[in-house]
Task: inverse folding
């Protein structure tokens, strides 16, 4: 499969190609228990962390189970993750994801108990609880079983409650930094020129391919939200380096429109080797005291394509002409990957090749 992409066919808004530094999500994580499973939870003998967590939870609720042999399969230990949106205030609801940690077969019908969600600094920023909704299911009988989707992972819509806010005083900033999602020198310079044209004075400066610094102008002093709103709506034409991305596992090739090829000759031939096994059975005559034997018989066929020709790719062809020429040779994506790598090795491909 070959896909064609254009590096700069249309312009984009700054908000679609860059982020304002400091305005971002924060990842949260927690460890908890899901209860109420219909016999699809962790086996407590094989998941000691689940047994210890269950005992600790019951002790906090006033139930002593230290000397009791727990043998329930309705509880599962899970990892809970969530993204804390920027400027989230206390009491805001967020979605959380729940994933089984032990050998639970399914989380269907389970309820997550109160689970603190902590950030990278170890502080608790949210609390999660609620019924788990999964996108798959599993069913098992005595001699057969069926599993669809992933029944050991699910989500709780609005299951997280923000308890702590991330301190970020946007209104007190005097300098902003734009972080490009695809760093490029040309793009960062175009963004700075566009912002300076909007403000009417040199307030934006490209620091590197991925960063543009913006000094707060006087007319926006005290109202930085208006400045961000005006900047993110500006239209800029992004620029990217010529690149060919190859995924050898799936046979996908993605090439940008700036890919150029110098004059080169390409030949592609298919050598096919086929081995056919047709074993024969040797049956002895009656009363001959012989034994039935299988005699192997192999047939080997070698097919070398005699019609393979040497094709010349002219200099500085466009991407469409390059793809049309390679398709005219009658080759598939797998062979096209090898040809592109060979053209790059010869120095005729004016682009970078990235193999996934």
Result:
């Amino acid at each position: 499969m070959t896909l064609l992409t254009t590096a700069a066919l249309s312009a984009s808004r700054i908000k679609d190609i860059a982020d304002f530094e400091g305005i971002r999500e924060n990842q949260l994580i927690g460890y908890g228990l899901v209860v109420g499973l219909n016999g699809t939870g962790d086996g407590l003998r094989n998941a000691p962390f689940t047994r210890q967590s269950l005992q600790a939870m019951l002790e906090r609720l006033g139930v002593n189970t230290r000397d009791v042999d727990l043998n329930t399969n309705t509880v599962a230990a899970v990892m809970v993750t969530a993204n804390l949106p920027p400027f989230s205030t206390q009491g805001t609801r967020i979605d959380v994801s729940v994933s089984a940690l032990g050998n639970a077969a399914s989380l269907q019908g389970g309820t997550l108990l109160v689970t603190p969600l902590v950030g990278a600094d170890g502080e608790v920023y949210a609390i999660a609880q609620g019924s788990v909704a999964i996108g798959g299911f599993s069913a098992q009988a005595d001699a057969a079983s069926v599993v669809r989707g992933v029944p050991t992972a699910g989500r709780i819509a609005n299951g997280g409650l923000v308890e702590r806010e991330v301190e970020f005083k946007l209104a007190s900033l005097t300098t902003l930094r734009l972080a490009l999602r695809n760093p490029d020198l040309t793009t960062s310079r175009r963004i700075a020129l566009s912002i300076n044209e909007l403000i009417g004075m040199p307030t934006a400066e490209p620091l590197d391919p991925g960063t543009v610094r913006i000094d707060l102008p006087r007319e926006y002093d005290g109202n930085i939200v208006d400045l961000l709103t005006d900047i993110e709506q500006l239209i800029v034409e992004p620029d990217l380096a010529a690149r060919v991305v190859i995924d050898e596992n799936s046979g996908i090739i993605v090439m940008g429109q700036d890919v150029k090829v110098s004059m080169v000759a390409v030949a592609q031939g298919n050598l096919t080797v086929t081995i056919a096994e047709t074993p024969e059975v040797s049956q002895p005559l009656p009363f001959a005291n012989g034994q039935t034997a299988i005699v192997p018989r192999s047939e080997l066929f070698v097919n070398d394509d005699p019609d393979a020709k040497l094709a010349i790719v002219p200099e500085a062809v466009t991407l469409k002409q390059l793809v049309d020429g390679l398709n005219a040779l009658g080759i598939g994506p797998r062979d096209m990957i090898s040809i592109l790598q060979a053209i790059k090795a010869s120095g005729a491909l004016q682009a970078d090749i990235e193999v996934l």
Summary: The first strand starts at residue 2 and ends at 4. Helices lie at 14-17, 48-60, 185-199, 224-232, 319-328, 333-345. The chain is about 20% helix and 40% strand.
